[in-house]
Amino acid sequence: ETYRPASDRPLAAPVLALRGRDDELVSTAEAAEWSRATTGKLTTAELDGGHMYLTENPGALLRLIGAELRAGHTR
Questions:
Q1: Is 41 in a helix, a strand, or coil?
Q2: Residue 20 within a domain
Q3: Which of 17, 26, 38, 48 has its CA 20 to 30 A from that of 57?
């Protein structure tokens, strides 16, 4: 990945870092590095699938995002 943010200033918002359970390109430790991008809460989760879990398991992804959004309204 070559993405570089325009600012090094962390977000003042919660971040949900996702990865595929069988992802050979992004490790659990690398996903946890998203903690540097926020001063808020970091939540990490793994979904069934590899690096392209987004297309391999879209239903599970949508359910997880929906649950996170609903939980945010009760905090």
A1: coil
A2: yes
A3: 38
| Residue 2 lies inside a defined structural domain of this protein | no
Has residue 9 been placed in a domain?
Answer: no
Q: Is the pLDDT of residue 75 over 60?
A: no
Tokens of 62: 């949508």
Q: How far apart are the first and last CA of the chain?
A: 34
What pTM was computed for the model? 0.78
What whole-number distance in Å separates Cα of residue 67 and Cα of residue 25? Answer: 26
Residue listed under structure tokens 């989760």: 45
Neighbours of 19 (CB within 10 A): 21
Is residue 33 within 8 A of residue 44, CB to CB? The reply is no
Q: Are 20 and 49 in contact (CB under 8 A)?
A: yes
Could you read off the pLDDT of 4-36 as tens digits, one per residue?
878 889 999 999 999 999 999 999 999 999 999
Overall number of domains in the chain: 1
